[in-house]
Amino acid sequence: MSPTSRHHLRPLNQPVKLQNVLYEIRGPVAARAAQLEAEGHRILKLNIGNPAPFGFEAPDTILHDMIAALPTAQGYSESKGILPARRAIVSRYQEVPGFPDLDVDHVYLGNGVSELIMMTLQALLDDGDEVLIPSPDYPLWTAATSLAGGVPVHYVCDEENGWNPSVEDIRAKVTSRTKAIVIINPNNPTGAVYSQEVLTELVEVAREHSLLLLADEIYDRILYDGARHTSVAALAPDLLCLTFNGLSKTYRVAGYRAGWVAITGPTAHAAGFLQGIDLLASTRLCPNVPAQHAIQVAVSGHQSIEELLAPDGRLTQQRDIAVRMLSAMDGVSVAEPRGALYVFPRLDPEVHEIRDDERLVLDLLEQEKILVVHGTGFNWPAPDHLRIVTLPWGTDLQAALERMGNFLASYSQ
After folding, report:
1. Between 20 and 30 A from 185 (CA), which of 10, 59, 72, 341?
2. Which InterPro entries would you find in this protein's record (predicted)?
C-alpha cells in the first residue's frame, strides 16, 4: 500500500486573520500581468512606485559607499541599526524647522518602511483597538492594522477640497478604542500636500483624545510647484509621534529596503509600547546591513531629487503630462498632485458606468497591456477612481494615456 493511500492530509486553510488583509497594488490583477509577461507580452506597469525600471538610477555616491562597506557588512548589526546611519537621520531632522529634539536611541532602521509599520502596529494594538486611517489610503496601513488584530477606521479625504482630510469626520469617528491616527503627507495615492493649518487641526484632535500620531512622510521631499512640506512632529512636540521615512522614493533605491522611524515627544506614558517595538526589532535580529550603509551618504549633502522636481525636471514634466491628458478625456477629472509620484483620477459615473473597478483595470490590462490599480484597492468606497504612476518617460506615459483614453471611450460594463 502506498503512503498516499494510507494518509489523508488535513486542509491548510488561510487563517481568519488574513481575510481582511489586502494589498491590491500587487494583487490578482498584478498576478495576471505576470502571467501575460510570461506569455511574451510587454506590460507597462503603472501600478507601483518603483523608480528604477523607469530609468531613475541611484546616485553614484550611494552605490560607492554601499560597495565599500560590503566587506564589513557580513554580520548582524545592532537591532536598531548601525549608529552612523541613525546619527545621520538625527542630523537630517535637525534641518527640519520645528522638528523636536530626536535622540539617536529613538531611531529604528528597518527593511523598508513597510516592516516598521508592521512592527509598530503589532506593538501597539490589542484585538479590537482602532486606528484612524485616511480614505483613500496607502493600503499597507489598513492591512497591517487588521493583521495586528486592530480595526481600521477610515476617515474621509475630500476630493472637492483638494483631498484634504475632513476633520469633522475624524472627530465623529474617535471612540474609546481609538489608539492612533495615521497621517500620510504627501499623500499616496492622491498627491495632496497638507497645509500647516490642516495638520494643526489634525494634531489638535490627537491632543484632545490622547492619540498616537503615525506620520507617513516617505514623499516629504517630492514636492511640485513650490509646495512646502510640514512635518507632523514639528507641530506636536507634546505628543508621541512616530515619523516614517526611507530611501525608496526620494533617493530612488526602492530595492535596498532601507527605511527608518523617528520617535519624538514624551515617552513616559508609552513605556510598554516602546518596549514592544524594541522587542520586535530584536526578534527580526537587525535590518539588512549593507543597505544601512547607504543611509548616511543619501541623507547628507547634495539632493539630486531637486533637479528632477524643477519646473523643467523630469518628474514635474511627467506629472504635467498625466494631469493634462487625463483632464482632456471625456468624463475624467483629476486633482493636480502637489507631491508624490501618482495621479488619482475620477471617472464620472454619469459618463462611465463602472460597477466593478477591479474588472475595469483587468480589462484594461488584457486589451491594452497597461497595469494600473483600481481606487477601491486604496480603501476608497466607490468604484470611480484609478491610481496611475507618473514615473515612465514622458513619451511612454503620453502613449499609454492616449491608449487608455481610447479604451475608456468605448468601454462599458
Report:
1. 59
2. Ala_Aminotransferase, Aminotransferase_I/II_large, PyrdxlP-dep_Trfase, PyrdxlP-dep_Trfase_major, PyrdxlP-dep_Trfase_small
Q: What is the mean pLDDT of residues 171-194?
A: 97
Annotate 241-301 with DSSP letters as a single string: EEEEEESTTTTS-GGG-EEEEEEES--GGGHHHHHHHHHHHHHT----HHHHTTHHHHHSS
CA 405/CA 326 separation, integer angstroms: 8
Please report the domains of the chain, with CATH numbers, ordered by start residue: 16-56+307-410 (3.90.1150.10), 60-299 (3.40.640.10)
What number is the average pLDDT over the span 326-341? Answer: 96
Q: CB atoms < 10 A from the CB of 301, how many?
A: 9
Alpha carbon 95 to its chain centroid, in Å, reads 23
Q: How far is Cα 181 from Cα 148, in angstroms, rounded to an integer?
A: 15
- Number of Cβ within 10 Å of residue 41's Cβ equals 12
Q: Name the nearest CA neighbour of 187 among 154, 160, 215.
A: 215
Q: Is the torsion defined by CA of 385, 24, 146, 79 positive or negative? A: negative
Distance between CA atoms of residues 339 and 346, nearest Å: 18
Site of grid cell 483632464: 327
Q: pLDDT at position 302, please?
A: 83
pLDDT over threshold 90, residue 22: no
Fill in the DSSP letter of residue 13. Answer: P
Task: In the chain, count H helices and then E strands.
Answer: 16, 15
**Cα distances (Å, whole numbers) of residue 307 to 222, 312, 389:** 11, 8, 19
Residues in the chain: 413
Contact indicator for 361, 372 with CB cutoff of 8 Å: yes
Q: What share of the chain is helix, strand, coil (3-state, %, to 5)?
A: 45, 15, 40
Model pLDDT, residue 2: 59
pLDDT in tens, 60-111: 899 999 999 899 989 999 999 999 999 999 999 999 999 999 999 999 999 9
C-alpha grid cell, residue 246: 526611507
Predicted confidence (pLDDT) per residue in 197-242, tens digit: 999 999 999 999 999 999 999 999 999 999 999 999 999 999 999 9
Q: Which residue has the cell 529596503?
A: 257
